[in-house]
Design goal:
Elements (H helix, E strand, L loop, with lengths): L1 H11 L12 E6 L2 H8 L3 H4 L5 E3 L7 H4 L4 H16 L2 H9 L3 E5 L6 H17 L3 E6 L5 H6 L7 E5 L7 H15 L6 E9 L6 H9 L10 E7 L14 E4 L1 H9 L10 E4 L20 E4 L3 E5 L7 H11 L11 H18 L9 H23 L1
Parallel strand pairs: 1-2, 1-9, 2-3, 3-4, 4-5, 5-6, 6-7, 7-9
Antiparallel strand pairs: 8-11, 10-11
Amino acid sequence: MALMSEAFSLMKNGVNKNMFNSNHYIPILKWKRAEQSALESIKNEDKEHLTPLIQFVMPKLTPKELVGMTEDEGFQETISKFRKKTKKIPEEILKAWGVAPVFIDFSLLYTIELKTEALEYILSEGGKIGTFLIPVLYLSDDQKIKEIVKNYKHGLCLRLVCADLNDMSTLGKKIDELLVSTGLKEEDVDLLVDIKEIEENSGKFSKYMDLSKAIPSLLKWRTFTFASGAFHEDLSRCKSEEGTIIPRLDWTNWVSQTQDKSSLRTPSFSDYTIQHPIYKESTQFFPPTTSIKYTLEGGWLILKGKKQKFGYYLANANLLVGDSRFYGEGFSYGDKYITEKAQHFPVYVKDPNIGGTGSTETWLIAGISHHLAVVVRQVSTLL
């Protein structure tokens, strides 16, 4: 009952009409256990300045499950597995994020039928338990998807990609068509420009930031966000013997671009945390190196380990807590976890059989948790 009351209070106080301004953070996360746990770990004072965009992804079948299956049978079994998972998603969102607004993206699901089925179910069941769900749509989405959110009480998020911005005349027409088909106005829609990966000196960020400023009716949209990602696809360029810094180009570019006070509207900041912005299912089948990815003010500190060598987590945690760049145990859940593992390192050295190194999942939780805490405080105090 308390959760439902909070949800109605949010709507009554106008959250649905004017959700946030430029001193707000929108992390883009896959809806997996690590990401769910990282969101759940966020402190309440940080949560006020953050609205996650969660992307649902297809589950992977284990080698044992795939035995004897044809490619088509494996495809159908994956869809069946996601359908079962769909039933749990509304409660998972409530547990991890409560009744604060959250964007939900279905674009990585395999078929239109699966997208529409999942969208209908999650919006319906999520509404019953008080979650504040905002569906993410693309201009290229099938009409069936647009029909589901027609006149939806929480509006929607329009996610534009680079190709959408290359012809402003066409963009304006497509936006008008979307608004007509959904029965919504710009004031009911959160605008998100997502340019995906960026590299140093490519000029991509500034090009599309400038183009985004020419989007029709820029001042009318409920919110305006600019997303990019600079975390590397893998850590092959990082050295094992010493810490490596990967520049946070998504952040530093955004800060630089938003210093222009003559801009019509300053966008909110959005990134892909400590993960590469392009999701590749094939990489989910290969074990990563046991590396710590630690967010700093302008870069990511990478303390690289080796595949399946979990002792490196403890050794690198021990190095990190002694580093002047460490934020301290009380900064976030992730920092507390790193501190505990560093303290366990001397015990592990004496007897590796005792374990306690943590897993790929628990270290991903720690890394994302720390990143979210760093960025939300940067964003909320900068503008």
